[in-house]
Amino acid sequence: MPPPEDPLAAILRDAAAGRWPADDGGWSHLPGWYAGVGAIVALTGHAFVCSDRQLDRDRLDALGCNGFGGATLPQVVLSVAGRRGWVDCLDALLVGTGRGREPAPLVPRPDLSAHPRAVNARRSRHATEVLGYADPRRRDVATVARGLAGMTEIGVEAAAPGTGSRLFADVLDSRPVGEVVVAGVAPGNARSLRSALAAGFAIIGSVQIMTVPTAHRGAT
To answer: From CA 169, how far away is CA 79, in angstroms rounded?
Structure first.
C-alpha cells in the first residue's frame, strides 16, 4: 500500500486544478515531508508553514506571520528555521503537467551529476535523477526528484540563452501523462521564469525551502 499523500501535496494539487484554500489572511502549520526539510509556502491569501520544529504560534503572529505576505518576512522565516537552519532563496512556485511524449526527449546523464544544479537539488530532495540530451556534447541539465511535499520537483539549467523554454518543455514531455510537476524559480530570474511559463508551467504561489539538522529540530 502506498504511503498517504502529504497534506501539502493535496493542497498544491488542488491549487493546480484551480481549487484554492480560503483567502482568509491566515496561516496553517503543517509537518515537514522529510526529516529536517520544510518550507514556507504562500498561496493567495493563505500561507502554510511546514516544519517538524516546535513552533510558537503567538511569537510568529507577533513577528507578522500571516497569509497576506507576512509569512515570508525575514524575521518569520528565520524564526521558523531556527539558529541552525539553512534557508534557500524565495522562489515563485510553479506547476506543470506531464505529457508523456515517446520517445522521451531527455535521457539520464550521470556525467552531469556534479553540476551545481544537481548538487543543490540533493540538498533537500530525494532520489534525484540528472537528465539531459543524448548528445554528450550538450551541457543542458535537468533534475527530477522527490521534492516539495514529496511531489515530483524539477530544476533546469540551459547551456545557452534562449533555449530554456525548450528544456522546460522537454522535461514535461518526459514525464508521465497527467503527473503534476512542481518547480521553484527565483522571481528575479526573469529569463528562466518566462521560459517556464512559455513551456506550460503556471504560477500558483511562492515557496522558501529550509533544512534543519534533525538533531536540532526542537531548538530555537
So the answer is: 37
**Backbone phi, psi, residue 97, to 5°:** -130, 130
Q: What are the grid coordinates assigned to 22, written together?
A: 480560503
For 90-139, the pLDDT digits (tens) are 999 999 999 999 999 999 999 999 999 999 999 999 999 999 999 999 99
**Which residue(s) pair with 146 in the sheet?**
126, 152
pTM confidence score: 0.93
Q: Which helix (H) or strand (E) holds 114?
A: none
Check whether 88 has a pLDDT greater than 60.
yes
Instruction: Round to whole Å and give the CA distance between 127 and 212.
Output: 19
Report the phi/psi class of residue 29: left, alpha or beta, with left for phi > 0 and alpha for psi in -120 to 50: beta
- Taking the CA atoms of 182, 188, 189 and 190 in sequence, report the sign of the dihedral they define: positive
**Hunting for cell 526573469 — which residue is that?**
190
Work out the angle at residue 116's Cα, subtended by the Cα atoms of residues 162 and 191, and round it to the nearest 5 degrees: 25
- pLDDT for the residue numbered 16: 96
Kindly report the average pLDDT of the chain as a whole number: 94
DSSP-based helix, strand, coil % in the chain, nearest 5 = 30, 30, 40
